[in-house]
Amino acid sequence: MSITNAILGLLSCQSATGYDLKKIIQDSPFMPWSGNNNQIYKVLVELLDDGFVTNETHHQEGAPSKKIYTITAEGLAELRRRILLPAEPPEFKKTFLLQLAWANSLTSEELSVLIDNYEQEIRAQMLLLKEQNSRATAWSPQRSDREATIWNMIHMNLISSYENELRWTQHLRETLFQVQKEDKKLNYTVIELAGKKAIELGSSETQIREEQDVLDLISACWEHGTELILLEADSLSEDFYKLRSGLAGHVLQKFVNYRMKAALVIPGDKTLQGKFKELIAESNKGNDFRVFDHRPDAEQWLIQS
Q1: Short-list 280, 285, 181, CA closest to 231
Q2: I want to staple 35 with a disulfide (CB 3.0 to 4.6 A). Which of 26, 67, 193, 242 is the partner?
């Protein structure tokens, strides 16, 4: 399967510029091409020569002219011919397996970190796919219910692949170290604030202690259809308040990356000091994460548009 198939397919949905095609291909979770200018425009020239597409120059006042490409009847026939070709077998070339193949030289601690980092990356990518699917942020044609279902099933296929990879890494860890990783779940509560759902994390029993915990929290938000998070001071480990640990930076960046809105309630009698106090002062200027002395103030901010 070549990038030509993808470009013909995209143009069968709508006319587009080379830049439009580049953006869709680069953002796609399943189109395996870089989508650079050389790739895109080389294919478009070939398609023009073959009569599979036409182009029309649109002049814009105050901006460069742009070429709009449109598929022809011959192009649609060529796309259909390519779709009906026998499917290629799936590829399972993973760079992690190459790392793992020579990992016997590592210490047990180094090997454990290698596996943990890989697992964390899988979880992050899986969460991103779920977010795209739930919010329809990824490009997809919607010309019929059947087509929408096909594209939804493509996303489900990708997510199931990541879920299977997570199960495999769990088995890998258990086999290598002969221990079962504790199945620790965040003790969160789903609450309602003025008719809006929010995830509340208020227990010190299952604190956010590492980057994976905040990913689990974000996953809980998507599961319940919300991006609002209410945190109590005890729900964050001591490392969060020590900037040198890096935990606070990782947590706040995840809120930004996954477009969460989180409020942390720290009672006024708890003294904020040093760099952490500076971090809070800066974050309180934004709209992703803020700290409040009183819970009602935090709730009010969360429900604001």
Answers
A1: 280
A2: 26
